[in-house]
Amino acid sequence: MPNEHYKKYGREYYQKNKARRIEANRINQERYKQEWHDYKAALACAHCGASHPAIFDFHHVNPDDPDKKHVNRLIKDRCYAQAYKEIEEKCIVLCANCHRIHHYNEHHEQKNPPAAVPAEGAWEEANLLHGE
Ligand SMILES: [Zn+2]
Ligand SMILES: [Zn+2]
CB of 74 within 8 A of CB of 39? Predict the structure, then answer.
């Protein structure tokens, strides 16, 4: 059966090349890792200008984007090309400090002023109850 012959041949070829492919893959992964390190080493925080490969966060400009992906997650999953694309199209680069401050401010701006305004009618109701 010619079909069997090809199957067998294919299997042998696969086995023979398995070790070589694993090695090539490992070398590629090392290269991608190094490139990622170099990429980060060349960045600077958009807010304070600090620069060190260990400090960066990638802040999504649009937090409601349903397709946003965590850059560090992509890197962990070795999706390097996707990570670069995500950063360049959707993120600003901030150091960990500026990133925290950014979200802290965001949080406080949203929480503080509106909560202080009582709902309409709340005063009258409160006074009525008090008078009883
Ligand atoms: Zn910064
Ligand atoms: Zn953020």
Answer: no
Residues 34 and 78 in one domain: no
61 and 92 Cβ atoms separated by less than 8 Å:
yes
Q: How many domains is the chain built from? A: 2
Q: How far is the CA of 89 from the centre of ligand 1 (A)?
A: 20
pTM greater than 0.70 (yes/no): no
> How many angstroms separate the alpha carbon of residue 114 from the centre of ligand 1?
29
Q: What is the pLDDT of residues 25-57, one digit of tens each?
A: 999 999 999 999 999 999 999 999 999 999 999
Same domain flag for 62 and 80: yes
Q: Considering every ligand atom shown, identify the ligand nearest to the alpha carbon of residue 45 and give its number.
A: 1
Domain that holds residue 54: 43-132
Query: Which ligand sits closest to the CA of 99?
Result: 2
Whether residue 83 is predicted with pLDDT greater than 50 in this model: the reply is yes
